[in-house]
Structures are given as structure tokens and as C-alpha cells.
Amino acid sequence: MTCPHRRRIGDNYGMTCEDCGQVLEGYGYWGQSHTCLHVWAEYEGGKECLYCGAWVGTGEDLTAQEVDELLCDLSNGEPACTLS
Ligand SMILES: [Zn+2]
Ligand SMILES: [Zn+2]
Fold first, then answer.
1. Is the pTM of this model over 0.85?
2. Smallest-distance ligand from the CA of 2
């Protein structure tokens, strides 16, 4: 059975489902995951991930798939984003 993720808890690291423990956004609650599930906020000149702060400018030629594969590692305390 698939969890409907009804009970979500989140902070500025991300959001997690309280029932199944799956990370739903960003690094999950309390930064439980080391890779960011990006949530993009669109701006005039590009978009920025709400959680890791990764920035993709409209001039930068990243395909939608590449953007999804942008890995932001939090294991050193600060997000370090690289293309996988
Ligand atoms: Zn769930
Ligand atoms: Zn992110």
C-alpha cells in the first residue's frame, strides 16, 4: 500500500512524512537525507531551490533532467551542488 504522506513535518531543511519516514522535500526534516529533493522557486532571472539554495539561471543551459540530477550534498554541513 502506498503511503498518502498525510502527516508531514518540516523545517528549513526540508519536509518528511511522519508516517513512512520518506523525504518529501529538500533534505527532509532535520536534514535526514544528504541529497536534496529540490523544490524550485521561479524568479525573473532563473530559479532557486528553497532548501539547498542551488541556483539555475535562465541563461544557463541546463536541461530539465540535468536540473533534477543536480546533486546537493549536505554531509559537510553546507550544501555543495554538483551535476551527477
Ligand atoms: Zn508517507
Ligand atoms: Zn535543493
1. no
2. 1
CA of 28, nearest ligand number: 2
Report CA(17)–ligand 1 centroid distance (Å).
5
CA-to-CA distance for 34 and 51, rounded, in angstroms?
A: 12
Rounded to the nearest angstrom, the distance between the alpha carbon of 46 and the centre of ligand 2 is 14
User: Which ligand gives the minimal distance to the CA of 48?
Assistant: 2
Cα–Cα distance measured from residue 68 to residue 71, given in angstroms and rounded to the nearest whole number: 8
Task: For residue range 12-59, list pLDDT tens digits in order.
Answer: 999 999 999 999 999 999 998 988 999 999 999 888 999 998 888 887
Q: Which residue has the cell 518528511?
A: 16
Q: Measured between alpha carbons, how far is 72 from 80 in angstroms, rounded to an integer?
A: 5
Whether the Cβ atoms of residue 69 and residue 84 lie closer than 8 Å to each other: yes
